[in-house]
Amino acid sequence: MALLEVRGLVKRFLGVTAVDGVDLTVGAGELVSLIGPNGSGKTTLFNCVTGYLGADAGRVLFRGEDVTRRPPHRIARLGLGRTFQHVSVFDRLSALENLLVFLQQHQEESVLARLVRTRRVRRLEAAAVERARALLDLVGLGPKSDAPAGSLSYGQRKLLAFAAALMPDPELILLDEPAAAVNPTMINQMKDHILALHRQGKTIVLVEHNMDVVMDISERVVVLDHGQKIAEGPPAAIRRDAGVIEAYFGR
Amino acid sequence: MRRAARLALVGVAVAAPWLVARVAPGQQRYVVHVLIFTVLFAALALSYDLVVGHVGALSLAHPAFFGVGAYTAALLATRAGWPFLADVLAAVVLAGAVALVAGVPLFRLTEHAFAVGTLAFALVAWIVATNWVDVTRGPLCVTGIPKPVTTLPAWYWLALGALGVVLLLYRGMTTFRLGRALHAVRDNAPLAAAAGIDPLRYRMLAFVAGGALAGGVGGIYAHYLSVFCPEEMTIALTVNLLVIVFLGGVGTLRGVLVGAVLFTALPEVLRLAPTWRLVIYGALLLVIVIRSPQGLDGLFRRAASASGR
Q1: Phi-psi region of A14 (alpha: psi -120 to 50; beta: other; left: phi over 0)
Q2: Could you tell me the pLDDT band of residue B229, with boundaries at 50, 70 and 90?
Q3: What ipTM goes with this model?
Q4: Do A88 and B183 touch (CB under 8 A)?
């Protein structure tokens, strides 16, 4: 059974059809890239899958469960993590707290239990702190753990957002342009992190404009243009696909 | 060290009526009266800061919940003969319930629209209090609200106890995991949702808790003055709360407390110069806003880091 299944998804904005009947199936453990020119509907598709936008038609199934009409926080708790195209962190929380936020909601303790800080809650918190520190070390932000996230550099915030998405150990991670607007060293670092996740058996869907990254690490590439899927296949085949070349460069 | 300082502060707060008797024996009644107001305003400002400072929802509806609590306690005490603690508890519950019912449609609005919506709600509550004469006696006010304690120092300690309860709840809600979830919603609601947090749930939590506590303070306030009039719940109250919270330091316990002390006591101190009173007050507000947009707490923090601590 596919981990993520998108069937005939349609999303319109004021008469413009941003996503036009897209089908997408992602199996467990796959690393799939979603590419296409600007405005081809990649981010809109992500937003529909994660509940940020309501689809006008079509269905989204995660682990066979229909999540089409669910709000974002419910979908997130099912184990579907995501990052945002524009760096997105909690500016006034420290780097460590940014990560902690991402785990605690999955542990579903009651408001009252958190208010009086039951022993169970304190134990969960201690475990979360340990995991958060390990992840910060992994992305090289260990020394910055107490700094407010808003004070970090652009690239560091991008790494922080990435590490935060990993906190709840999601089964499927949607990464929206993780390598955009960061320096080449950091692109390589990001690439290594994504490959490491893939080796751990995580399922990853990547939206990315950097073709070197896409062609280098993807197992399968899906190409969107004007909201429609125009090609799908292994990187080598996509590179030679006439329709794709036309969509990107025109005739 | 900080713990010792905090204990000393609590000690001074508890001993205040005695200290006042020593320092200004002739003025004791007046000064303790101002202190009671200060303590009640501090509690009210903390309840307001839960909403404004910690989930970042600029609500202007707080006088409505304060008023609902005050009328609940006043009417239960005068018409049904309820004892003090029971009617204040009822004030907490009813104000919280009103906040819950009002919050559902209000939180469909965002940002400025939310502020305007809550402002409208506060105005409607005030108009209802003024015109629903059968229940509230309108501009004639609810009078003869019984006082559970009679001496001023006893009132002070009662108010201080209420502040203690609000303070503990405020601390519990704004730190650790609960506080982190509130702050996540404040800083970036869509990202909070990606973390599995339901932004609406936490906004409602702060709004209802803040409203309920404001209702409790309103109930105690009505008992203290033994009169409650609709004018107590006008927009003027919102303005006072905004001054206390934003000039003290929004979202910080210390800032809000300092703000409450300063902006309740200061206008009284300035009575010594009656002609210039409002001018000095206004000028001070301007200076603080310009010199330290993060409020007085921001000023303290900068001073502390400048002195190398």
Answers
A1: left
A2: very high
A3: 0.89
A4: no
